[in-house]
Amino acid sequence: MKKILVTGGTVFVSKYIAEYYVKAGDEVYVLNRNHHPQPEGCILIEADRHDLGDRLKEYVFDAVLDVTAYTGEDVELLLDALGEFKDYILISSSAVYPEYLPQPFTEEQETGVNKHWGAYGTGKIDAEKVLLKRVPLAYIFRPPYLYGPMNNVYREAFVFECAEKNRKFYLPRKGEMGLQFFHVRDLCRCIDGALEHHPSRHIFNVGNEDAVSIREWVSFCYAAAWKKPEFVEVHLDINPREYFPFHDYEYRLDVKEQHMLISDTVSLQEGLKEAYLWYQDHKEEVNKKDYIKYLDAF
Q1: In a 3-state reduction of DSSP, which class is residue 232?
Q2: CATH 3.90.25.10 domain extents, the chain
Q3: Percent of the chain with pLDDT strictly greater than 70
Q4: CB under 8 Å to 142, separation ≥6 — which residues?
Q5: How far is Cα 253 from Cα 106, in angstroms, rounded to an integer?
Q6: Domain span(s) for CATH 3.40.50.720 in the chain
């Protein structure tokens, strides 16, 4: 049994990770401000990660799983507050790669400002730099779009809602842009691989090997709800973000090094079926946006 600290723990990725390790039989602590319901089976350390004082000094953790670090300062303050720990894993992002680099992006490429991600990407770059400077043997994961049960982001949930309402689906142009995904359970399995095997590589792109087009992804989402979409192509000069939940930006990660951690991944079709089952009972937990309202005003 491992003693694990998960930052956050109340929404999507951090909540899924916390409950995953509870189910694995580990002793899981979550660090958050207690503003939302807590994950099942976890021990709460109620505090703001920016004002920790000595709250963590008494603990000895086998692993710190940092899901909620968005800046270098976030990492710096947590490291200053921690007592003893063995492993540290930071969930970073593919947003650290500048859009002008050749694709698929590899871990050996430089990081830099990406105009599509802005401050989010540069904050993750700073978080990585601070961590590796202070904890050179820490692990960093750079996923693409994460999905699965507990996803409160209005992405697949938006498509599920359209499917349930038998709505036509409005595609940006022909819907040919590629999207790369990663199931949150596979992210946990990668964490398992790092903690168990301690590979010599410390930065990993993680994700499904194959990308899918927007049109394919929407079709898979409708199929998970036992529906088939009728598409409308939008060729007007408007920002797709007004009616579609992804940036108008196609990128691809090279994830071959991920095989040091896991040998396979959940298929997107099966993962979306899981996501839909969760969505049916947790619609109120999704942070909805006005995509449908915008479309109805066309």
Answers
A1: strand
A2: 156-179+210-249+266-296
A3: 100
A4: 92, 93, 94, 96, 107, 203, 204, 205, 206, 253
A5: 7
A6: 3-147+182-205
User: CB 198: neighbour CB atoms within 10 A?
Assistant: 12
Q: Cα(189)–Cα(48) distance, rounded to whole angstroms?
A: 28
pLDDT band with cut points at 50, 70 and 90 for residue 49: very high
Distance CA 18, CA 150 (A): 12
3-state class of 292 per DSSP?
helix
CATH 3.40.50.2000 fits 3-147+182-205, yes or no: no
Paired tokens of 98: 């500048």
Are 30 and 9 spatial neighbours (Cβ–Cβ below 8 Å)?
yes
pTM of the model: 0.97
pLDDT by residue (tens digit) across 110-167? 999 999 999 999 999 999 999 999 999 999 999 999 999 999 999 999 999 999 999 9
Q: Which fold has domain 156-179+210-249+266-296?
A: UDP-galactose 4-epimerase; domain 1 (3.90.25)
CA dihedral 202, 208, 214, 218 (to 10 degrees): -130
